[in-house]
Amino acid sequence: MKSYIYSVAVTAILFVLFSGLDFAQTGDPYIHDPSTIAECDGKYYTFGTGAGGLISEDGWTWNSGGVRPGGGVAPDIIKIGDRYYVTYAKGGGGLAGGHASNVYVMWTKTLDPASPDFGYHDETIVASSDGIEDCDAIDSAFLLDPNDGRLWLSYGTYFGFIRLIELDPKTGKRMPGNEAIDIAIDCEATAMMYRDGWYYLLGTHGTCCDGPNSTYNIRVGRSKKITGPYIDNLGIPMLKGGGKLVAAAVGKYQGPGHFGLVDLGDDVQKCSFHYESDLDRNGLSVLAIRPLLWKNGWPLAGDEFRQGTYQIQSEGSGYGLEIAVDFVRLQGGMRFFRRDKNAPIKPIAPQVLADVDSGWSKGNIEVRIGDFMNRPHQKWTITPVENAGGYFGAPFYKITIEGTERALAATAELEVTTVPSFTGAPEQLWQIDQLIDGSYRIMPKKIPNSDEKLALTAVGYSTPTLAKFDPKSDRAKWNFKLP
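-> structure tokens emitted (483 positions)
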């Protein structure tokens, strides 16, 4: 009986933690096999299987509108110079299509279909499969090697090998005499990236196109050479089916596949993919964007920030963000381990908001950093703000003292304070980005009378301010602890 009670309790806790997760984007983010997300003239674009794609003004609300000729399946995008190269495939994929397929590359000066410079040029076949050989030439993806500027394309599915070819970065065409290299099996929808001397090959394992029963999951291996061999964390080559897990099903979202990297700079990286099925959206395939973390040299999809009540802890000092109010003592004075054996042992009631808030100012209250005491003035409720828009991959949040509308706000003096009530003003909206090391950056949407992009930063152990974010310093890194 005890183990059953424990199991029920754990299940309840997990439900509370994961029920608030929202990995899919807002708007109409319906897409399958999304390309890497590309920015063009202040908007974000991704294309999927079929002729269309999605556009977003802020990276959070997505709607249809992207235009890509050729139809086909599983496109990808890369920008080189003043060109956007787009690859996709026609044919293949098994079933009625068999495995005979062609991979195409074309280019355009802009992704905006309303621009006079919009138009795709030089569509060229760069790879093929005949339906008999041990390769299915679809699911192509680019990598521009940052070390030497060479352009590569991976492609292939579960039907045979994943292959790698080299393209000309000036034209997008296949380099003359270039022979395809086998780099993996038992996966599809591959992508590649480079970091700290390693090339990473990400492949999608499992089954697709079966709605809520799809088993897609994203895995990775790495190599010191772009041509491989790619090996996972257990030493299993990807040519033998290896791959370390990067992203799997979670909560109401099933079957992540088609990885894309978006590097936003300052140690903020995100990954895009589709979920084969969002159970809250008729089981349809939707675009997802999640933080990308790095642990011991391996990529891992992080979790989008969960609304809730937290203590906000400085990564640098370990102290917590709090409003600057008088400390209210709990009952009892100095005590030691010795006790009066005739006195009963009884709990001391924890401090709650009603015990302390009568002494708080009704106006603005400044913010400071102090020792953790798990008291009301250190508990912050963080909630996404409806209809306030968002930033790349996430909504804006309000940060208030638990049980109140007292809200954290940026000031024109480049400082932080709390105002008596949340109004939805831009200086009260906060961007919360998880960094590649797992800590967080907290930034106001807008600072009054300023266009600067500054982050919440600790000055020493006790003073918070707004300052330019430095990813090499712990001063502007924060963690969220359950109180």
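Confidence is low (pLDDT under 50) at residues 1-20.
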